[in-house]
Amino acid sequence: MEFLDLTEKEEKIGKAIVNAAYNIHVKLGPGLLERVMKFA
User: Cα–Cα distance between 30 and 25 in angstroms, integer?
Assistant: First the structure.
């Protein structure tokens, strides 16, 4: 499968999203405990 190259703007947006998700993960932890996830 072939993909088009990302524009500089798309690359910048993607990096901002990944960085935001990483920072949230670092501050809050990896997520809900397994026992909580079973009831979601």
Answer: 6
User: Token pair for residue 37?
Assistant: 């996830």
pLDDT digits (tens, 9 = 90+) for 1-40: 899 999 999 999 999 999 998 998 888 887 666 665 555 5
Contact between 40 and 32 under an 8 Å Cβ cutoff? The reply is: yes
The Cα 34–Cα 40 span in angstroms is 10
- Rounded Cα distance between 9 and 30, Å, is 29
Q: For 5, list phi and psi in degrees, rounded to 5.
A: -65, 145
Cα separation, 29 vs 18, in Å, equals: 15
Interatomic CA distance for residues 37 and 24, integer angstroms: 19
